[in-house]
Design brief:
Blueprint (H helix, E strand, L loop, with lengths): L2 E10 L5 H17 L3 E17 L2 E14 L2 H11 L3 E8 L2 H11 L6 H10 L1
Antiparallel strand pairs: 1-3, 1-4, 2-3
Amino acid sequence: MSKNYYEFTYIVNPVLEDEQTKAAVDQVTKLFTDNGAEIEEVNEWGLRKFAYEIDKKNSGYYVNMYLEAPADAIPVVERFLRIEDSYMRYLTLKFDAKMMRHRELVKKNAVPNVFEVAEEETEG
């Protein structure tokens, strides 16, 4: 079974307690691994303000992950996120060859990570 490389970002409902948020993040990670995915990296960006209101909320807890997974694992996780109230939104990006080359350069620190640059600009 061939695996594809994905970037998966999702938003956890901000009304959850810290323990519930941690459990929600662990649950998504476990769901991926149970369906044959290999998690490369999980970045918890934390609580971020939205540009516009979503479900009467102004912020959410962002989580970004990079993983290698079989194609049939993605619909399983996406369906779970649609059903559960703990998750507000998600975005799945399947990497093509050009994106993979860029990802390898980011891992080698040959090019700056877009998110790190944006964070430095907002802090400065």
